[in-house]
């Protein structure tokens, strides 16, 4: 990032350098540390480096390197400065955003009330939210099980509302936004303060993330198929293919691979070095 910031290398050169160094590291492990006689047809990743290809994929797509054509010069400079000074926790979400699926679970409401220090409720079973971290890929956005998705990468935070007509989705909209349909959500306004367990769970989750960051990001509510911010949200799903900057002189050979495509390319290059 520092070389890119001072103009020593272009975006394309940075990305090619990342690929080359990753291939060199994994090829050296294969040559000197892997069990003798292991098949070259298998990509072997040591336990300590299993996430390296994933983080390399994210590094090639993050705002500090290539945030896409919609990113302004000032925003990119800001991302580079923050990335250079980021700690371990911040660096992790920059290279691989945290994506949480909000699911509905049937639990005892009095237990939730106790955890959130709410007033005493009568004992009854009810729908409440459960946050589960999932991989950053579009096919993980399962409309059947998720009523909403919360994504954050240290710079942005999105609350993604999928198109879902289930009763659980309607209850979520009613108890978190105070509306009856997705179309009625005011995406410009802050999340309303509603005295419901679901609203408190969402706000507690966001507050917990804020405490981990030195800077708080606005919660952008994005409705599937309705808001322009959906393009930015989906660009942060780093396991998927990311579109190249149209007409950019720095359109890189490895600019927008999926995670699987990158693994295949790394495997091919490692085999070429070992042969």
TrEMBL record:
Coiled coil regions in record: none
Lineage top rank: taxon: Eukaryota
Alphabetized InterPro entries for the sequence: ADF-H/Gelsolin-like_dom_sf, Gelsolin-like_dom_sf, Sec23/24_helical_dom, Sec23/24_helical_dom_sf, SEC23_SEC24_subfamily
Pfam entry (one): Sec23_helical
Any GO molecular function: SNARE binding
GO cellular component, one term: endoplasmic reticulum exit site
Listed GO biological process terms: COPII-coated vesicle cargo loading; intracellular protein transport
Domain Sec23/Sec24 helical: 7-82
Protein name (record): Transport Sec24C-like protein
Organism ancestry: Eukaryota, Metazoa, Ecdysozoa, Arthropoda, Chelicerata
């Amino acid at each position: 990032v520092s070389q890119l910031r001072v103009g020593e290398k272009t975006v394309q050169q940075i990305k090619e350098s990342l690929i080359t160094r990753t291939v060199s590291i994994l090829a050296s492990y294969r040559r000197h540390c892997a069990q003798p006689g292991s098949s070259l047809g298998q990509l072997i990743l040591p336990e300590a480096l299993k996430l390296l290809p994933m983080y390399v994929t994210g590094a090639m797509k993050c705002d500090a390197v290539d945030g896409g054509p919609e990113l302004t010069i000032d925003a990119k400079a800001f991302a580079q400065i923050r990335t250079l000074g980021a700690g371990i926790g911040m660096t992790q979400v920059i290279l691989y955003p945290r994506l949480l699926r909000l699911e509905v679970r049937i639990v005892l409401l009095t237990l939730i009330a106790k955890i959130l220090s709410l007033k005493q409720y009568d004992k009854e079973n009810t729908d409440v939210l459960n946050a589960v971290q999932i991989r950053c890929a579009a096919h993980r956005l399962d409309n059947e099980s998720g009523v909403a998705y919360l994504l954050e990468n240290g710079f942005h935070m999105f609350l993604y509302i999928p198109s879902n007509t289930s009763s659980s989705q309607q209850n979520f909209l009613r108890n978190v936004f105070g509306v009856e349909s997705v179309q009625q959500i005011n995406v410009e306004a802050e999340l309303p303060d509603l005295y419901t367990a679901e609203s408190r769970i969402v706000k507690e989750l966001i507050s917990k993330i804020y405490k981990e960051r030195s800077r708080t990001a606005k919660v952008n509510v994005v409705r599937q198929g309705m808001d322009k911010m959906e393009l930015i949200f989906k660009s942060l799903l780093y396991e998927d293919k990311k579109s190249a900057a149209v007409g950019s002189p720095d359109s890189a050979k490895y600019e927008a691979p999926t995670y699987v495509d990158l693994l295949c390319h790394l495997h091919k290059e490692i085999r070429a070095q070992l042969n």
